[in-house]
Design brief:
By secondary structure, the protein is of the alpha/beta class. Among the domains are: 4-15 and 27-175, Rossmann fold (3-Layer(aba) Sandwich); 420-516, GMP Synthetase, Chain A, domain 3 (2-Layer Sandwich), CATH 3.30.300.30. The protein is built from 16 helices and 24 strands. A 13-stranded mixed beta sheet has the order 2-1-10-9-11-12-13-14-15-19-18-17-16, with helices on both faces.
Length: 519
């Protein structure tokens, strides 16, 4: 199914329902569809053709969603860019995708202007929210274009979007995703728009991230109102949930932690929330345990996936977040809550393999590989990287290390590059980090390996302390020793003001190793 049909269906079933709420402005599904038509016609008038790439650099806003649907309607390919990218990364992404047109948020116009001469494929620069000499203007384009629908022959397997990886391990790589990459998931997991059912999603995950895209498309197909926040802010999030009576939210662990730790948390009426989905980065056990306590009645879902898999491929469902049963059952559920990413979705195959590519039995740690109709077939214009990532049988190397239990639940132990190997023993950074999070003085923590002449590597903890709290390295090491096997406890601790992270809260382990990874 073509993703633009999501909007067409919603506009037909509930045309007067609010589709988007953004900074005081409201657009119904009919109005959103008309703005999309106008932009699609404007792009055609500028010479954009099927298969051309149209990029955007902008924080979350209604124009981001309008732009995607307009680009998709004419069969072109949408390229949402990380608005925190450095100029060299931005140049690389524009040149790699060979974007012919770039939509630019007001605060990024000067940045884009500085690299225009280095991005020869871009013929048109269109500012959003401002006027700039020598550039077309977004709203003027819409006003001067036809609201009539656009008809272009588009297939389910046509590429509709290129999303660039976060670059945590090097230069960002483009992941081409088809209409099917998104529609297969949405059609199987979302109830279509219903004139009698009204829900509101609050969107804070950036729309250059696959989780944000998936959430926005699911909301459109479901006929849900999408309350968009430009960039995550705790107070604004709580105010928006309260004002809009939001029923669903997608959060990354950092966001959830800041919400439940906010001193004003209890002052807001957040009782409208029914579902909170979290993912994109490991969730500390102490955070999700507290969240379950302070959001009674809310269904929590841990959604695991990657850009390369068009987002969610495993789910730890609401039933796994309810800790009931006898002592054995409760212990099993607590263990899953602490480190499991759940079971694969129906359209996904997953397994654990060793370094030689052989399948491993339950309980054995190896690399998680996955395949299915939503998984990418290769990186954009990167044949060498594609050959490393995809096997001949179509299995994607996720680079995530983990294991599977007897009931088919998968567990993460860390990225392949992040594992600490001490005297031949694999140490999961995530396991040690969860212990550190349990210390009352620890706000944030990451564990890396540092060279050791005797053991090869030993763990080092990089720790952020809570405001007003104190702790010594020896105290934290002893805290871990009492709760972990002796070889897993950190050999040293480094205290920092903050951990380097991506927009979605994923710790930049490569940066930590560069800064603190010396023995």
């Amino acid at each position: 199914m073509i993703t633009t049909e999501f909007l067409a269906m919603a506009a037909s079933i509930c045309p007067q329902r609010t589709a988007i709420v953004f900074e005081g402005e409201r657009y119904t599904f009919r109005e959103l569809s008309e703005r999309v038509n106008r932009l699609a016609n404007a792009l055609l008038n500028l010479g954009v053709e099927k298969g051309d790439r149209v990029a955007i650099i902008q924080v979350n806003c209604n124009q981001c969603l309008e732009a995607y649907y307009a680009v998709a309607r004419i069969g072109a390919i949408f390229v949402p860019l990380n608005f925190r990218a450095r100029s060299d990364e931005l140049t690389h992404m524009l040149n790699n995708s060979k974007a012919s047109l770039l939509l630019v948020g007001e605060q990024y116009v000067d940045l884009v202007d500085s690299i225009r001469q280095d991005t020869p494929s871009v013929k048109h620069f269109i500012p959003i929210g401002c006027m700039r000499e020598g550039m077309l203007n977004y709203e003027e384009l819409l006003a001067s274009s036809s609201p009539e629908g656009v008809s272009t022959e588009v297939e389910d397997d046509d590429v509709t979007m290129i999303i660039y990886t976060s670059g945590t391990t090097g230069i960002p790589k483009g992941v081409p995703l088809t209409h099917n990459s998104f529609s297969i998931y949405v059609l199987k997991n979302v109830i279509p728009a219903d004139p009698d059912i009204e829900e509101t999603n609050i969107l804070t995950v950036p729309l250059f991230h696959v989780a944000g895209v998936q959430a926005a498309l699911a909301a459109t197909y479901g006929g849900r109102t999408l309350a968009i926040i430009r960039q995550f802010d705790v107070k604004e999030w709580m105010e928006t949930v309260q004002r809009e009576r939001a029923s669903r939210a997608m959060l990354v662990p950092t966001m959830l932690k800041r919400i439940i730790d906010d001193p004003d948390f209890s002052k807001y009426d957040l009782s409208s929330l029914k579902v909170i989905t979290y993912g994109a980065a490991p969730m500390p056990f102490e955070v999700i345990k507290k969240a379950i306590e302070v959001f009674p009645g809310v269904m929590f879902i841990n959604a695991f996936g990657q850009t390369e898999t068009a987002s969610t491929i495993t789910i730890l469902g609401p039933e796994d977040h309810i800790i009931t049963g006898d002592e054995e059952e409760r212990e099993k559920k607590l263990r899953r809550l602490a480190s499991s990413i759940g079971r694969p979705m129906d359209d996904v195959e997953m397994k654990i393999i060793d370094r030689d590519g052989s399948d491993l039995p339950p309980g054995e740690v190896g690399e998680i590989v996955a395949r299915g109709p939503r998984v990418m077939t290769g990186y954009w214009k990167c044949p060498d990287e594609t050959a490393k990532a995809i096997t001949k049988e179509g299995w994607l190397h996720t680079s995530d290390m983990g294991y599977m239990d007897e009931e088919g639940y998968f567990y993460l132990v860390g990225r392949s590059d992040d594992l600490v190997i001490r005297g031949g023993e694999n140490i999961s950074p995530r396991e040690v980090e969860n212990i550190l999070y349990a210390h009352p003085a620890v706000e944030d923590a990451a564990v890396i390996g540092v060279p050791d002449p005797e053991w090869g590597q030993v763990p080092r903890a990089v720790v952020v302390l809570k405001n007003g709290k104190t702790a010594t390295a020896d105290e934290l090491i002893e805290f871990c020793r009492e709760r972990l096997a002796s070889f897993k406890r950190p050999g040293s601790v480094v205290f920092v003001d903050e951990l380097p992270k991506t927009n979605t809260g994923k710790v930049l382990m490569r940066v930590l190793r560069e800064r603190y990874g010396q023995g």
